[in-house]
Amino acid sequence: MTTPNGPAEPGGTTVAAPLLDVSGLVVEYRRDRESFRAVDDVSFSVPRGGCVAVVGESGSGKSTIARALVRLVKPSAGSMVFDGTDLATLPERRLRPLRHRIQMVFQDPYGSLDPHLTAEQVVAEPMAVRGQRDASKRRARAAALLDQVGLPSSALQRKPHEFSGGQRQRIGIARALASDPDLLVLDEATSALDVSVQAQVLQILADLRAEHGLTYLFISHNLGVVQAISDEVVVLRKGRVVERGTTQQVLSEPAEPYTRRLRRSALEPALMHGRKPREVVRAVAAARSAERTGAVTA
Ligand SMILES: Nc1ncnc2c1ncn2[C@@H]1O[C@H](COP(=O)(O)OP(=O)(O)OP(=O)(O)O)[C@@H](O)[C@H]1O
After folding, report:
1. pLDDT tens digits for 61-98?
2. CB 3.0-4.6 Å disulfide test: which of 11, 46, 221, 242 passes with 20?
3. CA 218, 223, 228, 234: dihedral to nearest 10 degrees?
4. Does residue 102 contact residue 90 with C-beta atoms inside 8 Å?
5. 28 Cα–ligand 1 center, Å
6. What is the dihedral of CA 241, 242, 248, 252, to 10 degrees?
7. Which residue among 27, 39, 58 has the greatest number of ligand 1 atoms within 8 angstroms of its CB, and so is best to mutate?
8. How far is the centre of ligand 1, averaged over its atoms, from the C-alpha of 200 (Å)?
9. Is the separation of the CB atoms in 106 and 189 below 8 Å?
């Protein structure tokens, strides 16, 4: 028997269906007239309100999974069931009403913000697209969202080039929230930021998740950052999942040599459980700096 939330277990308890269930996903690109599998039989699921990280070296297929989810590329096999609907095979016209529910936040906020619009207009735009005709309501909500990501009201009339990288990323997050998404796909969303700013943005993301019950798919090559934000980790290598589990388990006792290598490059001293995002990110920075200067870290 199933319920709207998922199958009922014997004894009457309900197992909540994941918000996103990716199964046997294959994405191929054409290269030199041949087909190349960038994502090869990948399966994982993201619980409602959870944060699952996809980690792996450059070229392992992380962004391709994100692109497939918003159908910038079409999978050649497998399913991506989002809240009961398989996005992999859905015709475009049926996909359209779902699009606002999955929002991407990219690495380079500058490239994705219209330079001619003010911060307020950038954040208000998705509301107009979704049919909010009342400009004063759009403006009020944009101001509230920018406030939630820690930008002052004096920021409302400024244009993207007048902001720092971290502030621009906050605007990108506020804009994503303006669509009322269920799932945020964060593709290296903090990678371009310096460490203390990265910590602030991670803290904002953690707070927003707690407050709004948002669900995150967090794509990153940085295990320190992943440890700060995610509950579960999927480790990708050459398009295939090599390991998965809770963040604590995978990062503290990686089963695969590949994951151990990734972990070493993220610097083990920084892997300290139970710490707040900003503490972990600072520890990563301190360890990196110590490594550069040859100092020994505890
Ligand atoms: N449009 C494309 N056409 C052909 N090959 C592509 C295309 N986009 C990505 N690839 C290849 O697919 C593989 C996976 O790329 P992808 O960008 O998903 O990796 P990634 O793990 O996100 O890497 P990075 O961390 O460097 O962004 C790589 O070998 C890449 O060169």
Report:
1. 999 999 999 999 999 999 999 999 999 999 989 998 89
2. 46
3. 50
4. no
5. 10
6. -160
7. 58
8. 28
9. yes
Residue 8 in domain: no
Q: Which amino acid is at 17?
A: A
Domain count, the chain: 1
Residue ranges making up the domain that contains 196: 16-293
**3-state SS assignment for residue 195:** helix
Which residue, 33, 35, 103, 85, is CA-closest to 239? 35
Cα separation, 226 vs 207, in Å, equals 16
pTM listed for this prediction: 0.85
Which tokens hold the place of 67? 């692109």
Confidence of residue 297 (pLDDT cuts 50, 70, 90): very low
Question: Does the predicted interface ipTM exceed a cut of 0.90?
Answer: yes
**Residue 164: inside a domain, yes or no?**
yes
